[in-house]
Each structure stands twice: as structure tokens, then as C-alpha cells.
Please model this.
Amino acid sequence: MPKIHIPVIGYTQGGRQMMTTAMSAVDLVSMVTKPKAWDPATTSEHGNRARDTPHMLGIVNYLETVPKYVIGCAVVYLTSKEASFEPTTVPNVTTENDAAQFGVLSIDIGARFDIGDGQHRIGAYEKIVQSRDEDDPLIQNLRSAGQPLIIVIEDDPKSRAQDFADLQRNVKPPTASLGQSMDRRQPINNELSDLFTTVPLLVDRVEYSKDNPGKLSAKLFSFKTIRYVSGLLLVGNGYRSPATMDKAVNACFEGEANAEKARKTLKDFWTTLGELVRFADVIDEDVPVPELREATYLTSAGVLYAIAYAVHQTIQTYDITTPGAVRALDDVSFDRAPKDGNGDLVLPVTAEHTIFAGTLINAQNGKLEAGRTAWEGAGMVLYKHIKETLATD
Model:
């Protein structure tokens, strides 16, 4: 049977022949079979998880808008009847004691790759190829660019499915804080990083590796929390998906006039927040961060969301500066609900104990509530307090 031949680097894992290579994205699209739905009862075919169309379209947008893109390896399969690996000798290259071997993968014409991992990446290529003309610049770019592949010779469909499960188990995704702080294509991430060297409250007090600083951590907030708080401050709470909110927040930095306004709002907010009594004690090093965390709700993400929401509502409604809105909260007690002589919370928690009773704080058990409804309710309570403060000034 006629064959096509692809240069590869061969190696083995778990006793199986594997190869790594790269193919033109356009050519790859024509050589893969459409993934079928995973069905554990089927023994003759390898299935895949359902395709997430929004995720795939996000990759399409990434390829269309980012010139210096990077796409990781896809894992694809062929059977031992369809393909074979032949090592080759390369002059002046010694590989006898190496795990890798140069070689050629010979594939039957008409054989198709079965996608193990990477269906959304390959689906994005397919979407672009099908929607654009051959002379389109992006098509030409994809035709000359390489999509890295790991090709596995595996006959058993169930083993292919097991590989997918193993790949997901053995990959640790970054925390949201780490991933966001490294993503410098989004203007908000760059702007915040600049603040971390100038705003006293944030200098050396931002946690990047975790989304929630530990009880004894000297870090006040995670990058993820600061980013969302800053987004609420700039655009409010009207966006229900992270993608749409990100788009709105980043749009605040389009055009120099808008960017300067957004930067000033952020700097004023975080600077003035640091002037609130409890935070000021930390900045002055009179109170360590763990002690602040133990005594108050101020390091809780929900409380910070509520503050940002209240301040956003205030500056949108009243002729007042961001510092003025934040300072109107200076007489709010953010102390935790009190405990009795045995160290147990005094229950039920009431408004006399904390302003957040019944919103962020569960009145019956005294625990912090998670979720949007809780912090939005708390934000409205703070907004009402700001309005009352402004009315009496």
C-alpha cells in the first residue's frame, strides 16, 4: 500500500512506540478523524469528551489576534497496521545511549489520526481553514507554521482513553493568580503589576502562587482577588461571565485618556483603602497580617468585593471622588463577630455584632458565605452606609 513518510524523533514510554514531530496545521486538519463521543460501553472505538465550542472559539480568536502565539502538543494515535517507525542514522549524531532516535514514520495513505488530547486546538485550526480562503494571510501562516504532535502507536481504544485520563491527572494547571499575573497581553494585569511597586498597601503583600493566602501568610491578598476587586471598581457587577467582564475591564485602558482615568481610579482606591485604620496599622507594621486576618474580615475576598462594588456604585451616582467614597467607610467596623468566654461565636450573629450579618456572614452559624449573592448583598449594605455618611457631611 502506498505510504506517506514523516520525519520524527522516536522514543518509548510504557513499552509503546511514540514519536514527536510537527505538521502544518492545514495538513493536520485533513489527516484527523472527527472525534466521537466517549462511550465506556464501546470497545471498538476511542471516544472523546464533548467539544466545548466556546473554548474552541477562544483558541480561534487567540490564533487570529496574537502574532507570537504558542500552541502545545496534541496527542494523536495510529494503529500498528496503519503505521510503522523506522530509525535512521544521522551523520555525526550519536544516539545509541539516548532515549531519542531519529527516524521516519511511514503511514498508509488514507489513514487518519485519532485525536487523544488536543481536539479543541485541532478544531480551532479546522474552523479557520473552513472559513477562510486559501490566500488568506492567516491560512498561509498556518500552512508554514508547525503544530507539535506526539504520535502513539496504540491498537487498543481503551488504552487511548486511559492515556487521556492520565494526561489530565499528571498536569497541574497554574492557579488563577499565577496564570493571570503572567498574562501580560491583558492591560489590567500590567496596570496592577505597576501598582504593586507604588501603593503601600500592596507592596510585598500580594500572593501570586495561591488564590487564597494561608492563615499565617504575610501576604494580604492574592493577585486573583485584587484583579477581580479592581474590575468591580472599574466596571461594576453587571457581567456574568469572566470573559465578558475581562473584555469590559481591559476596554477601560483603550485610549490614553481612558487609561489615565482608570489608572487614577485604581491607584486612588488601593491607596485610600490602605489608609483605613486597620490596614494602616499593617502598613505601619504595628499589626502583622496574620493578626489582622484573625481579628477582622478585611482580608476576605467577599468583603473586598463588597467594598469595590459599593465604591463603584457611589462614584457612578454621586459627584464624589474615589478617595471620598472609600473614606466614608472609615467608621465601619470590619471586626469579626464576637466570641464568648469559651471561644465560641455568639449566635445568632446580628447587625449589632457585624454589619455583614445576614449577607456575608451566616447569622445562624457565623460562617462566611461564599457566592455572588452574599457579597452583592454586603455591597448594598456598604453602599447604603456611604450614602448616609455623605448625607450627614
User: Anything to note?
Assistant: The chain has a mean pLDDT of 94.
